[in-house]
Specification:
single chain, 458 residues, mainly alpha, Growth Hormone, Chain: A, 17 helices
Amino acid sequence: MEQKMKATDKLSWLEKISFSGGEMGTNLLFTVMSAYLLVYYTNYAHVNAAIVGTIMFVSKIFDAISDVAMGYVEERFAKPGAKARPWLKRMALPYAISAIILFTVPDFTSTVAQGIYVFITYNLFCTIYTMIVIPYNSLQALITQDKDDRKTTGVLRSIFSTIASTIVNSFTMIFIGWAGNTKLSWTIVIGVYAVIALIVYSLCYVNTTERVNAEEDQHGQDDKKLGFVESLFNVMKNKYWRILTVNGIFSSAVISLNMGSMFFYLAYVCGKPQSVAIVGMLLSMPMLVLIPLSAPIVAKCGMKNSLVAGVLIMTVGRIIVGVSGESSLMMIYVGTFIFALGCSTQWCSYPLLCYTVEYGQWKTGVRQEGMIMSANSFGSKCGTALGTALCGWVLAWAGYNGAAEVQTASALTGIKIVYVYLPVILNILSAVILSFYKLEKEYSTIVKELEERKAVGK
């Protein structure tokens, strides 16, 4: 039956939801690690903060490199019609287990032993995360080439991602309190998240099919196996991939700057630390409504145009906060909501990136879902690292003092730079970069030509 499936076949709703639901498994565990691991280490497991910071810095370098390595492994060892899905089956359980042991630091008497445990478990989680997320991202380009279904799965992925981040950011500490607010409480709560992740990834594996590869094999085409260096250079030739990767670096840096400096801006520049929780909710919860509402607008205006518009709307929202937020709490909320409104079209980057797979195949004769998705993930992590580094560098340059209740004028200026000015600049650069993306209009012609090549056995 699978051999009769075509790459352009429409997906059933079961397959759309099963695939997109995997995003919840990804973000429940990754978001709780990103948002609360440092809190767990320092406040509950009593790990030295300097040790944690050093481990995370060193590990981030390895983590970014492992993305590209995993993309190559996926490409190199792919089997007909089974390039990405098998990795979900292999890594779903290890992913769940690695998250649990990450939040289960034993009561070591030795600081060295404690540091070794943290180093091993942190890198184990990050590596397994890479081994399941890179194939999962690749799967979106493998289950269908239908443009509408790629848009739909992009929307659904963003919805499930928002649900997961909202649960983690809004309720994790409440769950920890219910579980007793002890170190063991974290193991229990993370265990529940891990079970949910295991279930949704299993459903994703069971209810999806790699039609694109199956159809290529049906036409008797041999899967080309490139060496690592050749494969990487092949991806670099893809001009539309380069555009989206640069955009990914900028957008990830913006999000990193936003989350990393939000407390400082609200507490010190605006003098409203009590608004942090509300601003955090305004950034995530409205997305559950805004993302579905954006779909008909995207259908009419196009994904690239909607993505550019969203970036510019984010810029307007941040300018409103920067101009009037210091004197008006309501304007902070308004600006934050407008920023979230702009974020509601960010899901378009998923299907636009999938298009670059067919473009690369059309241009070079080789499909590279794994390398394209992994290299893009590498760019996103570089953007996150860039945003985090810029936040720290600027605050240090401006003379920010965490022990001081009142910051100097230069420190307040530094906070404004990282929360308002840099995101505005990076968003404008994103809009400029994205303006060169023309593949959306060319895509149908490219797919048609690929079909014609298959028909004649080229």
